[in-house]
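REVIEWER CHECKLIST
Item 1: Sequence provided? yes
Item 2: Single chain? yes
Item 3: Sequence as submitted:
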Amino acid sequence: MHSAINVSGLNKSFGGKQVLFDLGLAVEPGEMVALIGASGSGKSTLLRHLAGLACADGGAGSSIQVLGRSVQSAGRLNGQVRRLRADIGYIFQQFNLVGRLSVLSNVLLGRLGRMPRLRGSLGLFNHEEKLSAMAALERVGLAEFAHRRASTLSGGQQQRVAIARALTQEAEIILADEPIASLDPESARKVMDILADINATDGKTVVVTLHQVDYAARYCERVVALKDGRVHYDGPVQALSGAFLNELYDGDLDAGLLLPKPAQHGASHIPLSLVAA
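Item 4: Structure as written out by the authors:
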């Protein structure tokens, strides 16, 4: 069986400054992995490369494969990367919704990668696709908001719409880039509960970048820590210590980032039927 994600020899520079250094990573199907590290460590840059939204520096040993297919190699994107992106759900920190469109219309946009271009460009979604989108909204607790403009929703609600869009997309891999960074604690918990349920119930592979280490500890069994563009740690979350985290964040660790007291994995999760609007 192929790894869900396989990265080798990844280097990336911006304006002459290198930000990723010979990075390697493998994620197995069905894993939920947290990427942690200080701002500027390379978390978001790595995630964008996994989705084919950015192209690495050249180099014969550089490659990224997702679901056994090449995203990019030796600094060049695969010519079929658009087709591959249909299997990769990407959740942005700032939601990336079209504010003037309805919630339902935003969720339906997740189908575009699996539709003929002409039908997609005209927004001609069939009954089955609309039912799928409504089911996704029901799952994230927002079905009653289907016909509201997306811009009228709170930040936490908009992020849940973005997750519903990825569900409608039928993505095999969910890449979530700081999905709770701008949310209040209750909204953050709802978003993480939903991502954890997608991983546990649907078996989808989830990679989530988090600045909040306590959320990484609560929801992910495996953590990959980046520092200065390199993998600084890759292993079980239980092995992390306060001393290591202070070193990882150069002593600039807020009290809210400290690891919580050990708790049974998943104990904080709530059924999606209880996720309120």
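Item 5: Key structural point noted by reviewer: The radius of gyration is 19 Å.
Item 6: Recommendation: ____
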